[in-house]
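Journal club prep, notes for RB
We'll compare a predicted complex against what the paper describes. Inputs for the G3I case:
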Amino acid sequence: DGLNTRAVAAGKLYFGSATDNPELTDSAYVAGLSNTADFGQITPGNSMKWDTIEPSRGTFSYTKGDVIADLAAKNGQYLRCHTLVWHNQLPSWVTNGGFDNATLISILKNHITNEVTHYKGKCLHWDVVNEALNEDGTYRSNVFYNTIGPSYLPIAFAAAAAADPSAKLYYNDYNIEAPGAKSTSAQNIVKLIQSYGAKIDGVGLQAHLIVGSTGSESVSAWTTNLNAFVSLGVDVAITELDARTTTPATAAAVTQQAKDYATVVQGCKAVARCVGITIWDYTDKYSWIPGVFAGQGDALPWDSNLNKKAEVYNAILNAWGTG
Ligand code: G3I
């Protein structure tokens, strides 16, 4: 019995975790990650991003990504492949290359075709484009948008579909967990891609939550928002869930955090086309949060000593229920 077996019993494909190459020298950590009762899916936190995969033009380096893909295969876990097109962790040869429209389109297609072909048959999902939107729902300024315009999105999805027709292709973003301008714009991205005749299979809601804050108020807000995507004919997945608080977390914060996790799980459970939930690593030992938000963290169901936080873990189990 565990987080993944309960998710599967509830009709989902998986409950999973992100991971990263440096952590894989920690054998206790790897044992926890590889326990398929809890984790039926993994996502590489960094090693399939553009700066790792194509650090200079036309030079592809798959060593680190392959380590994560091989671990998933060895454990019998699904792999969510993350991410092909993002403004961050994008090498400066792309950002500052001064390429014209036609050249940047060919660079974009070449990157996607090469990487998706390399991992063909191994990725349950691809996060094709990540974080294309600003908080107000306008398009984020990045080299692809500024050079190619919004059509960079359908171009990217079409290239990915051609290279691996069986991978499910996702648009992935944060702060789209509740109804609002950014969620509406993410829905418009789905329509844009469809209007070009390109394939999009799903939307990933990252869900980097703040304990007791937006994104975890109610199950009905979750289901309303998820159903707005589903009504466009796509699946949804919770792709990077965590819930941060001021460290060290108080007992009251942990109680609220347990409720927040349960709310997300209940929201996904209630929507048939919500296919699974991924936490953005499973232990506070390796969370990205303290490095970015000073004084914040304690966001995951396992503490920094790899011990389960019983209240949070059990809240997730109970939210999945027993089938
Ligand atoms: O690889 C270098 C290493 O050589 C160097 O010694 C070290 C010193 O700081 O930095 C290492 O790079 C770090 C990299 O992770 C790999 O560990 C970067 O500084 C660090 O900024 C980077 O953070 C990652 C972050 O994306 C970058 O934006 C996090 O690990 C990763 O969890 C995070 O993941 C993102 C998702 O992809 C998209 N959604 C948001 C999420 C959280 O920010």
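Talking point for the session: The pocket of G3I is lined by residues 45-46, 88-89, 130, 206, 240, 288 (CB under 6 Å).
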